[in-house]
Amino acid sequence: MPILMPSAHVPTIDISPLFGNDSDEKTRVAQEINKACRGSGFFYASNHGVDVKLLQDVVNEFHRTMTDQEKYDLAIRAYNKNNSHIRNGYYMAVKGKKAVESFCYLNPSFSDDHPMIKSGTPMHEVNLWPDEDRHPGFRPFCESYYRDMLRLSTVIMRGLALALGRPEHFFDPALAEADTLSSVSLIRYPHLEDYPPVKTGPDGTKLSFEDHLDVSMITVLYQTQVQNLQVETVDGWQDLPTSEDNFLVNCGTYMSHITNDYFPAPNHRVKFVNVERLSLPFFLNAGHTSTVVPFTPESASGNSTNQPMSYGEYLQHGLRALIVKNGQT
Is 2 inside a domain boundary? Predict the structure, then answer.
């Protein structure tokens, strides 16, 4: 029998005022964001302007039509030693060991002529895509979705900036479209009659992915309406509610670092649920050379203690540590 957990408080926040010009309404939304980030660490963003029904249709069709050979040809180096990519590409299921699979892609602006690509800077890769004839329209949809999510996430960051007592556009320079290291993961959890062995948490909960903190500025997640996420609170692990319409938002460890834990990255985990479902996170990341100097919001006590860290350094070390702790996804 599954272990029943109490539900965490995850408010739904109408973020539409952040797209407008009413400063009072923006302040009100920022106050709601502040409360959520200081509470469970999660909130749902509603009235976001993204067609989530089309998103599900495109991703379901992609996963349905991908062959094993296509998956291998696109697989990252952890699964295909002939591929130099460690971020962009296919993350394969391994029969008898691992069921989840996904396709991750990066900034469409990373072309062969991009300065970071030409210099071979770590974490930058030119996206590999499945064959256009076999998957018509997939690449242009994904590139458009990336830009839509970057715009949405930047707007949410403006709400966070106001919540932190900073100017609305405080984070904008770090999130320039030409250089952002943000990524999209199109994750599929299958239903299987013979499911590979799953991990068990210290409290006996069966897990698809163990407890972790996101390596990002913020994570903006859309997923199928199947309850699976849990957050660790002072009262123990609690279930996160689901939504078929809205994006689930939480801070990553870079936000925790630059705010001296005023906006902490919530510790969360994925329960094992043997149901066909999608999990589609957008990990908002700054550019490689961007550095946000840590500060303590005026509304909080204490002084800034964390040292500045460039985003490229942060991301490279953070992703490596996540794989060491929880394994290759």
Answer: no
State yes or no: is 268 an active-site residue.
Answer: yes
**Do residues 284 and 254 touch, judged by C-beta distance below 8 A?**
no
Q: Which of the residues 63, 135, 268, 288 is marked catalytic? A: 268
Tokens of 179: 């250089």
Is residue 239 among the annotated active site residues? no
Confidence of residue 324 (pLDDT cuts 50, 70, 90): confident
7 belongs to a structural domain: no
CA distance 7 to 291: 36
Q: Enumerate residues 6+ apart whose C-beta is below 8 A from 193.
A: none
Domain assignment of residue 125, given as a range: 12-326
Is 214 considered catalytic here?
Answer: yes
Residue 1 lies in a domain: no
The residues near 218 (Cβ < 8 Å, ≥ 6 apart) are 153, 156, 157, 160, 249, 250, 251, 252, 255, 284
Neighbours of 240 (CB within 10 A): 24
Domain containing residue 123: CATH number: 2.60.120.330
Find all residues with CB under 8 Å of 92, minimum gap 6, and list them. Answer: 71, 72, 75, 79, 101
Task: Tell me the C-alpha distance between 281 and 209, whole Å.
Answer: 14
Asked whether the whole model's pTM tops 0.90, one would answer yes
Q: How many domains does the structure of the chain reveal?
A: 1
What CA–CA distances, in Å, run from 108 to 146, 150, 180? 8, 11, 10
Q: What percent of the chain has pLDDT over 70?
A: 96
What pLDDT does residue 1 have?
42
Q: Which of 42, 43, 110, 209 is catalytic?
A: 209
Helices (H), the chain: 23-37, 52-65, 68-74, 115-118, 138-163, 253-258, 311-326
Does residue 121 fall inside a structural domain?
yes
Confirm if 26 and 56 have CB atoms less than 8 A apart: no
Catalytically annotated residue among 73, 211, 212, 245: 212
Among this protein's residues, is 85 annotated catalytic?
no
